[in-house]
Amino acid sequence: MPGIYALVLLLFSVLAHADQADVLNVEVTSYGVSRYSFKVTVQHGDTGWDQYADAMVIFTEDDNYLFASNLQHPHVKVQPFTRSLPNVPIT
């Protein structure tokens, strides 16, 4: 599983108009041959609905897109926050 650690370094990307988020912790769990779960703790300067970290995006270590998940709401009062991406297919 050494390749997955390089993948995690590029795990969180902010698609909003704000600054990028700081990834504080990542836990990766393998489920079978090509399924993974990611638990990511992030800190970001969310200000409300107009400016917040709105997605987690997974890339390979050579910047190929693999998977994305939208975050449904801002986390103004809960910083840092943790979100999980279960059952992510990575082949």
Structure description:
- With 91 residues, the chain is mainly β.
- It has one domain (2-89).
- The protein has one helix spanning 2-8; strands spanning 22-30, 35-43, 55-59, 65-70, 81-89.
- A 3-stranded antiparallel β-sheet has the order 1-2-5, covered by helices on one side. A two-stranded antiparallel sheet has the order 3-4.
- The protein is elongated.
- It starts with a helix and ends with a strand.
Provide a quick synopsis of the model.
The chain has 91 residues and is mainly beta. It contains one helix and five strands; from the N terminus they run αβββββ.
Which strand order does the major sheet show? 1-2-5
Low-confidence stretches: 1-17
* SS elements, strand count: 5
Using only C-alpha atoms, the radius of gyration works out to: 13 Å
Shape: elongated
How much of the sequence is in beta strands? 35-45%
Question: Strand count, sense and closure of the main sheet?
Answer: 3 strands, antiparallel
Distance between the termini: 12 Å
What order do the helices and strands follow? HEEEEE
Helical amount: under 10%
Average pLDDT taken over every residue? 74
How many helices does DSSP assign? Answer: 1
Structural class, from helix and strand content? mainly beta
Number of domains: 1
List its traits:
three-stranded antiparallel beta sheet, 1 helix, mainly beta, 91 residues, disordered N terminus
